[in-house]
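ERR on first pass: missing label on line 2. Operator R.T. fixed the label and resubmitted. Corrected input:
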Amino acid sequence: MSYDGADDRNEQGDPRNDAELLRAHVEGDPEAFGLLFHRHRDRLWAVALRTTGHRDDAADAVQEAMIAAFRRAADYRGDAAVTTWLHRIVVNASLDRLRRNKVRAADPLPDDLEERASRGALVAADAEAGDPEQHALATDRRTRVLAALGKLPPAQKAALVLVDMEGWPVAEAAEVLQVPPGTVKSRCARGRARLAGLLPDLREGTAGAAAASDQVEGGEQA
Amino acid sequence: MTDERDERDHENGPDPELDPAEEQRVRGLLADLGGPAMPDDVAGRLDDTLARLAAERRAESPAAAEDSTTGQVVPLRRRWTRIGTIAAAAVIVVGAGGVALNQFLQDDGLAESSTAGAAESTDDSGGSGLAQSPTPGSPPAPEQAESRAQLLARELPAVRLGSFADDVTKLLGTSTARRALPGDGEEKASGQAARPPGCPGPRRPGTTTLPIRYDGVLSALVVHPERSGRRLVEVWDCGGQARLATAQVAQQD
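pass 2 clean. output:
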């Protein structure tokens, strides 16, 4: 997985890379921003969903981020990859929503948490498709992991979402979060330790282990 | 972006150390959550918002004044017709509280500076009398409506993405806004929402909708009744198709 945008060319038949699309948008190309956002929207969605823990909040956060990026594209200075810039805006919007809705922290778990867990389980869906018991176990496991993740401080959660769930290298996650790499490592370590205590009896499924292994290869270990 | 309280509360002292197997177990559980694809309804909502942003951009672009097929310059009057039809009516009374928008705009210094807008609005109508209220019962002349549209688009209270809750709290604390809004648990007697015709936003019974400029774009601020000292506020596009922001804000005493 690449985060510099270089591998994102041509996905929609457009030869321009992310930076070229953003520049084209600033210069008035009416299609460029849509192409750029479409390239990254699933990853941006995943980050927003896992960071906020609420589907509606995630949708609002991504929408706010998209509007901000659309209108402020001229402010992009090119000192980070476009995808880093986009993720930064989405993470900021997600954390803003968490701060605004602090009252929700005391809310009971949402009714559709199990459904959300199933929706998020794309990597394991094939392995579980033919085995209802396996599917039920996996759904229960993900529900518990999501609930535990929701108990972490937002900053730790955001770090874990980027590094452990989305596979970002620590250095680039630090750029997204606008903190030193050491802080990202620290947040990840604290978050994992907290999760280990909250989920002492759980182990990931086979598909999950494979996904984790793949992601670790993508960058520096946190 | 740093959450300072998180730093203070949770990042003091040495980092805990998990043994490698335990760390790998937790990382595996997290990775197992996977990366969900964006649901179709969310993708559709974003597509709609993007289309709206693109349309607004076209409308605001100087190039929009030129006919793309003939190269002829389109008169400013025509250029503003699209938003004129929307925004001109926003000078009409807002809400059951009987608050005229031009009064709302002038209240407590919340409106953005109108200097530039007034300068630009001096089109072929002459630009005079821009701040006058329309005579009740008589719609403004087209020229007046266009000029007002330009002025309104610049003088509406400004609410920004980066300071959304603070801006709205300040806005709702103005005396004029307070008179327009339902109180604690109170709903409009009719059960209908008060919605400015020029930028109605969505239908939300019992709410009051105020036109604002959200990050520079004419939008609808939907204010719900106060509940235990707090109000839910939402920003929508004028057509009520896309919710742009939400927050819970404390009622100012």
